[in-house]
Amino acid sequence: MNIKIIKPTPIGSLCIVWHESDSHPLITQVLLSRPNFPSENRVAMIFPDCCKSSCAEIDAIAKTIKSYLDGENVKFSLDALDIEFCTPFQKSVLRAQHTIPRGRVSTYGLIAAHVGVPDGARAVGNVMASNPFPLIVPCHRTILSGFRLGGFQSGTSLKRALLEKEGVTFDKTGRVICRKLYYDKIR
Question: Once rounded to an integer, what is the mean pLDDT over residues 58-62?
Fold first, then answer.
């Protein structure tokens, strides 16, 4: 395994864990820093034998991530992600999540219904909790049905900050203000 460390960023360091495939590099995981726990420390614990390395394709993705964090409206491709280790359900959830555009939110239940598992909100939440590709697959754009944030791997403060950077607003109680949820066909 190889790692590309991205720093500084407005949210601390990030690490892209990747490997060479037959045709191009594939990202295995994107690790965000957590409060008082930088991404480099997380990588050292999870992938102790990885080495710092990069290539043109990974450098381009790192640049796109930095552009996103600097406020640019970028669209990430799924082509460089190694999703082969994911179950079919996880793949469907990650693809559905990837489709939610900047500045929009959906709920775990709506995503579950969209992927054909109408009672699968908790299962979608579990997929999002272990999303190996945060930011590229924007799990921060999924909220609870009561318009509260729900969890996030790197904390709800970061989830809120990412959503606010995208133009999502909140009321005084911390609930998301939006007219229409993504994947909601009824409203």
Answer: 96
Residue 15 a catalytic site member: no
CB 42 within 8 A of CB 13: no
Give 3-48 as a 3 state SS string: EEEECCCECECEEEEEEECCCCEEEEEEEECECCECHHHHHHHHCC
Topology, domain 88-177:
Arc Repressor Mutant, subunit A (1.10.10)
Alpha helices in the chain (DSSP H): 39-46, 56-69, 88-99, 108-114, 121-129, 156-165
At residue 168, the 3 state secondary structure works out as coil
**Cis peptide, bond prior to residue 132, ω within 30 of zero:** no
- For residue 41, the model assigns a pLDDT of 87
Terminal CA-CA length for the chain: 45
Per-residue pLDDT at 186 exceeds 70: no
| Confidence (pLDDT) at 185 | 81
User: Please, what is the Cα angle at 114 between 109 and 118, to 5 degrees?
Assistant: 50
Q: Which amino acid is at 66?
A: K
pLDDT tens, residue by residue, 17-32: 999 988 899 999 999 9
Band (187; pLDDT cuts 50, 70, 90): very low
Write down the catalytic residue from 15, 86, 139, 178.
139
